[in-house]
Design a protein that fits this description.
Layout: H1 14-33, H2 45-57, H3 78-90, H4 94-123, H5 127-137, H6 142-147, H7 154-174, H8 177-190, H9 200-214, H10 216-221, H11 223-246, H12 248-258, H13 265-277, H14 299-314, H15 319-336, H16 351-372, H17 377-393
Length: 395
Amino acid sequence: RTSQGQALPLQTTSRAWWLLLTAVVGLAFVMRYVRLAEMPPGLHYDEAFNGLDVAALLHTPLGQWPIFFTGNFGREPLFNYLLAGATALFGPGVLTLRLVAALAGALLTPALIWLAWEMAPSLGADRRRLAPWAGLAVLGLLWSQIYARQALRVEFFALLETLAFAALWRAWRGNALRWWAVAGLFLGLAFYTYLPVRLLPLALGAMAALFAWRYRVQMRERRRGMTVAAGIALAVALPLALYFVQNPVSFSTRMGQVSVWQQGIDAVAHNTWATIGMVAGAGDANPRANLPGRPVFDPLLLGPFLVGFVYLLRYVRRPAAAFLLLWLAVMLLPTVLSDYAPSFQRAIGALPAFALIAALGLERSVAWAAGRWPAGRRWFALAGWALLLASVAIT
């Protein structure tokens, strides 16, 4: 139902809605896996390096597997562990190397569906529309499709942060310890994925401060659950944290290599404008990450994203709106503060937020039109689906 309590077409039965979700998730798996070994052609240097590390792991006793891979500028281990498992099952090859990343890319769609479902009430949106549209919107971003088809660890960061945030919103709404625990597990595992995860505490800390200021009673009621989540996240991430304490060079080397801080505030300002511009202007110029210069959004999804962004600014006092804006801003910092901005790879943590905001803008536009012209409600909803599917088709 809408926020005004009106029933919506295409949602008259639970069975029909679940069939739509199944179709959206099925489309995600098709897009991620069809011709996976041939598209993109060949292995990039980073993919091949991961393959060599996996070959070494398979000849190393499990108890001696590294907690951090120091080669190729340093890499967190979860992706290589999973690659080793896939290689042990299916044998070495290009397809095997890409299977795991493609799985993370495909699962990002149901993860976004879950997150949108949990956040919709606080956003004032119809969750039965927003949830499947969020899962479909990410398929309309070429950025997402490219990284889901390369043997790189970055897609797992996008997946695990989305799952962590979905579990956190579920825990906040119901205050069940099991969901706080699940959120803590996902957060802890995320630290084993990709370097920008180190900024997650900044986003979560800012949200905790906001909630402590505006929702003191609710925060007190959820203190036990938040303690459980934080404790599990810390326990899961502890082995990697201890490694960094003992090997601080591994922690800081890559950040020092790509940082633009030493170039002064002008470089940061230039990167900030370049990062803002990637939404509709010039995107990543790296042909491995993008059609050089193509922006984040195609013309079909740009309008919904801008509507969603303005909507979040208007209702920034809502906790979910503030959270989405904070998530987007914090996860764009890795490309703002590093060279070659805008870098889609370094901004991968913002990918789910971009998709969710675009879906929100489309949902709010359809809701507004349906409120003005109730007789066309069915057609407005169908137009929303058609726009998303058209965006996916031209990806």
